[in-house]
Amino acid sequence: MLRAILFDFDGVILDSEDLHYEAFRRVFEEEGVSITREVYYRSCLGFNDVECIRWGLGETQKIDEPGALEELTRRKSLYYDRLLENQMRFFPGVSDFIRAAAKQYPLAVASMALRREIEFTLKKASLSDLFCVIVSGEDVERTKPDPEAYQKALSRLNAHLSLEPARSIRASECLVIEDSAAGIGSAKAAGMRVLGLAHTEDAARLTEADRVLPSLEGISLEDVEPLFGG
Question: Most CB atoms within 10 A, among 62, 66, 94, 169?
Fold first, then answer.
C-alpha cells in the first residue's frame, strides 16, 4: 500500500540541471578546467556541490589550499542564484501532481541541493506548505546513490506525523520520484519503489526504477498507485 511520496528536487521539480552545469562550468573555467555538458550529466547528477567541485577540480592544487573549497562553493552558489533569478522553470505537470498528491499522502523532499535553494523555489511556486519534510544536502554525510537521504527523509516523516512504531510508514510503502540513475539507486537501496522521470537522463539509464515516464504531465495518482498493488 502506498502511504507516502518522496521527491528529488533538481531535475524532478525544478528544471535546473542546466543552471547547475552552467554555474559549475564558470567556476571550473576560472580555475583552468573545462567540462562538457555531456560529461557533467554523466558524472555529477546526484552529487552535492562539494562533491562536484572535488570531481571537477580534484587534480588541481587549488582545492587543497586553506579555505579554497568554501570559496569555490560560494562562487558556484552565487552564479547559480543569479541564473535561477532569471530562469526558474518547473517541469510540466509536476506542480499539479504535487498538489493532488498532498491531498492524500504526506510528501517529502530528499535532495542533494542546498536547503535555501529548495525552500526559495518551493515558496516561489506556492508549494512550500505541501511538504512535511525537506532533507537537503546539508543534512546528510553521504550523497546519492547512498540511501542515507531517503532513509533520513522517512525517519523525519514518521517523526513529523507522530506515528507509533507499529503504525510507522515503512520504506516499502513509499514512492520516490527521481530523475537520475544515482537517485534511483539511492531510493532502491533504501527499500523504496521508484518512478523514474526521463527529464535529464536517457530512459535507458533509469531501468532500475519500477516504472519510467517521460514526465508527470497528464499523470494522476491513479496512474502510479498500481505500483503498490492498488
Answer: 94
Strands 133-135 and 174-178: unpaired
Domain extent, residue 11, equals: 4-15+89-228
pLDDT score of 46 more than 90: no
Report the percentage of the chain scoring pLDDT > 90. 77
Tracing cell 522521470 back to the chain, one arrives at 197
List beta partners, residue 109. Answer: 7, 134
If asked whether residues 105 and 178 sit together in one domain, one would say yes
Is the model's pTM score more than 0.90? no
| Beta strand spans in 74-210 (E) | 107-110, 133-135, 174-178, 193-197
Cell of 221: 495518482
Q: By three-state DSSP, how is residue 141 classified?
A: coil
